[in-house]
Write a structure and sequence with these properties.
The protein has 57 residues and is mainly alpha-helical. It has two helices and no strands. 0% of the residues are buried. This is Ribbon-helix-helix protein CopG domain-containing protein.
């Protein structure tokens, strides 16, 4: 997947308010943003699972 840097889509998830608040608090404490960390997780997940998909193809 090419990286254009352009973010043109949103993902809405429902989680308990306490989990969201703690996640945002920890991100702030670590000088990052919740969005950045979620994007980082998604990219890592895609990369990890693309390798698995290639093995089964």
């Amino acid at each position: 997947m090419p990286k254009s840097g352009k973010k043109d889509s949103s993902l809405i998830i429902r989680i308990p308010k306490e989990d969201r608040d703690e996640f945002v608090r920890l991100c702030d404490e670590m000088d990052t943003s919740a969005s950045r960390e979620l994007r980082r997780f998604i990219q890592s997940f895609l990369k990890k699972n693309a390798a698995k998909k290639e093995k089964t193809s």
